[in-house]
Known about the structure:
This protein is α/β, with parallel strands linked by helices. It has one domain (about 1-200): Purple Acid Phosphatase, chain A, domain 2, CATH 3.60.21.10. It contains 6 helices and 13 strands. A hairpin with a 2-residue loop joins β5 (about 90) and β6 (about 95-100). α4 (about 110-115) packs parallel to α5 (about 120-125). The radius of gyration is 15 Å and the shape is globular.
Amino acid sequence: MKLLIFTDIHGSSTALKRVEQKVKSKNPDLLVCAGDISIFEHGIGSIFRRLNKLNKKIIIVHGNHEDDGTYSKYSGILKNIIFIHKKHHIENNLLFLGYGGGGFSQRDKEFEHLAKTKFNDAIKSNKDKKIILLTHAPPYKTRLDRLGRNHAGSKSFRNFAEKHKIELHVCGHLHENFGKEDKIGSTRVMNPGPFGKIVEV
């Protein structure tokens, strides 16, 4: 499948236009967003409606600027918005696992519990599917979580990638690392930035 992945547009009309242009020129099968479409939810309704008008399914998690309840509300109203925080979603041969928000701690006990329960069950039940992990925060010790000489990502996410055969991990949060890519074992990790990237999986 051809995915258009993007993150952290923060209400930017320029970023929205670039995403819209890529949808028209590249015709992706699916859009995937790692959160923070707004600045503290300012104008978030109009941003969601604009994304919905692209007439492509959008797999999405919320960012640290937003509340998961707001995303749940709009995903219930708008047919193309598929909110997967703490959930899984199957699209053709892809199994999406979603976990939004956060981005400020290296360990997340709630995610670790999900990894051992819901996510583990979803993986076992869909062994023929390629796994896409969608989080707002980046995994620990990659090019995507580097801030100066330090790493600010999630060890919980990294451990999950090391234990499971994940095709692609899409994340955002750290604007300094927009457009960067790395690998954890065989897992491709990407922060696509607000203008979006096309990825074939």
